[in-house]
Write a structure and sequence with these properties.
By secondary structure, the chain is mainly beta. It has one domain (about 5-20, about 30-135): TolA/TonB C-terminal domain, CATH 3.30.2420. The chain has helices spanning about 70-75, 100-115; strands at about 5-10, 15-20, 35, 45, 55-60, 75-85, 90-100, 115-120, 120, 125-135. Strands 1, 2, 3, 4, 6, 7, 9 and 10 form an eight-stranded mixed sheet that branches. The chain starts with a strand and ends with a strand. About 25% of the residues are buried.
Length: about 140
C-alpha cells in the first residue's frame, strides 16, 4: 500500500509525496540524474511510516519556477523525483526518475533541494528516510 499526501500551491504546481512501502534502493536505475553536490552525509536511511519510523513533516516547500521557455512551448506534465530527508531535515540524494523537460527537471530539483522538513524519527531520535514526489507543472488558462 502506498500513502500519498497532496500539496497544492499557487494553483500551478501540485506536489504529491509518495511513501514507498517495499522499495529496494539497490533496484534504482543508475542512469537517473543525481547531483553529487546534494548528496547526504553518510547515515543509515530508513523507510518512512514503517517499523516505528515516523513520516517527516513539511516545514517549507517553495514552489519550483515554471520557466518562460516551458510556458512558451506550453510544456506540462510531471517530474518524478526521489530524495532523502536527512536526520537534519534537509533534502539530499535528489534523483530524477521521470523526466519532463531539462529546464523543468532542473526547476523541480532546485525546489526540492530547498525544501525543509521536521525529520522522521525512530524512538524519538531523528533519522534519514527515502521519499518520492511528483512535481506537476500545469499551465493555467
Amino acid at each position: 500500500m502506498i500513502r500519498k499526501v497532496h500539496i497544492a500551491s499557487a494553483f500551478l504546481i501540485f506536489v504529491t509525496f509518495v511513501f514507498p512501502q517495499d522499495q529496494d534502493q539497490k533496484t534504482a536505475d543508475p542512469t537517473n540524474t543525481i547531483f553529487p553536490s546534494l548528496t547526504c552525509k553518510h547515515e543509515k536511511i530508513f523507510r518512512a511510516g514503517q517499523n516505528g519510523v515516523t513520516i517527516p513533516k513539511v516545514l517549507s516547500a517553495p514552489n519550483p519556477a515554471y520557466t518562460q521557455a516551458a510556458r512558451d512551448k506550453k510544456t506540462q506534465g510531471s517530474v518524478a523525483i526521489a530524495f532523502v530527508v536527512g536526520s537534519d531535515g534537509q533534502t539530499c540524494n535528489i534523483k530524477v526518475h521521470k523526466h519532463l523537460a531539462p529546464d523543468l527537471d532542473k526547476a523541480a530539483i532546485d525546489a526540492v533541494s530547498s525544501w525543509r522538513f521536521a525529520p522522521a524519527t525512530l524512538n524519538d531520535t531523528p533519522v534519514a528516510v527515502n521519499l518520492e514526489t511528483n512535481v506537476d507543472f500545469k499551465l493555467l488558462k
